[in-house]
Amino acid sequence: SGYAEEPPRHPALRINSKEPFNAEPHRSALVSSYVTPVDFFYKRNHGPIPKVDDISRYSVSINGLVSNHMQLFMADIRMLPKYNVTATLQCAGNKRTAMSKVRKVRGVGWDVSALGNATWGGAKLADVLELAGIPKLSSVTSLGGKHVEFVSVDRCKEEKGGPYKASIPLKQATDPDADVLLAYEMNGETINRDHGYPLRVVVPGVIGARSVKWLDSINLIEEECQGFFMQKDYKMFPPTVDWDNIDWSTRRPQMDFPVQSAICTLEDVDVIKEGKARIAGYAVSGGGRGIERVDVSVDGGKTWVEAHRYQKSNVPYVSDRAQSDKWAWVLFEATLDIPANAEIVAKAVDSAANIQPEKVEDIWNLRGILNTSWHRIKIQNSL
Ligand code: MTE
Ligand code: MO
User: Fold this and answer.
1) Which of 171, 199, 289, 355 could cysteine-pair with 285, CB 3.0–4.6 Å?
2) 223 with 147: CB under 8 angstroms?
């Protein structure tokens, strides 16, 4: 089956699919630390986990519309300046289960934990491409390359047994401030097999699908990648589009993710005592837009209070890029009086004043992506 050599995983993960392995932590694990421990970081795969046995022979090739074709070994990549970037990776399918309750959608079900916040260590893609003769901040190569395609070594059925792939615009790839990494470390340790050993792409602020794991080659191409996950998946359609009238070519591949938040200290229907309770969760926005505010309500959204926000534990969050991790989530908390039969709601506002949509019905889409609607939790009081 190809699944005989899967790595060991933490038993506390909630498994949403075994083969390929898709799993997320319980909600409470997400808010217990600002940086998500590797064991509790969600795992999203489309095929068996590849195994690289001889790291000295592992290399990434750079091909396509570029004058210098190159083959880079791990030693070459480690020779480049190393950057540590704290960035939240979020699957576009996060909160899909809740969207499916409105009207069935296709795809692996996820609760609110198909995301995690890690410190990724590696070389900047902009530096790697410079080795191949492509200057910083280029939007086209001398041979007409406008997109950078990442091809993996894994095999998935959506690609008819071929490798997983995706692309980003050359402009973003060669912009040092975009912080796109070829990462060989996660939280200060060698990145493990589940998360892309020996080398993965990390595209901060963009849906997880573009952060290709187990990188095999980089191609400079004229049009964006024509692979399944760019062209036939991870696109946002209006609620009127269904499987019998879908035209994939009418929409662009999703890149940045919108403003998102979730409460992580409670389950969807929870039983707690009346009185004070601590409500905590995460909020994050794509494209490097920080979080401006998180509002919490205990009466279903009639009245709101602003939650306290922080990044590194106990350091108050400042919406100032110079002082904040701009690609990373903020955690929020509020200790509130919980009335009888409360309905607790959270919504976040990002630095561009984008606000999460109220109702999942309004953003329903057949693939069940980007459910960023307000997170609501119904409380049943115990005595
Ligand atoms: N890269 C490869 N090669 N194969 C994959 O199946 N899944 C993508 C992306 N990169 C995938 C991949 C998706 S959809 C997501 S959300 C992230 O990896 C998940 O990364 P993680 O498993 O490290 O959390
Ligand atoms: Mo994903």
Assistant:
1) 289
2) yes
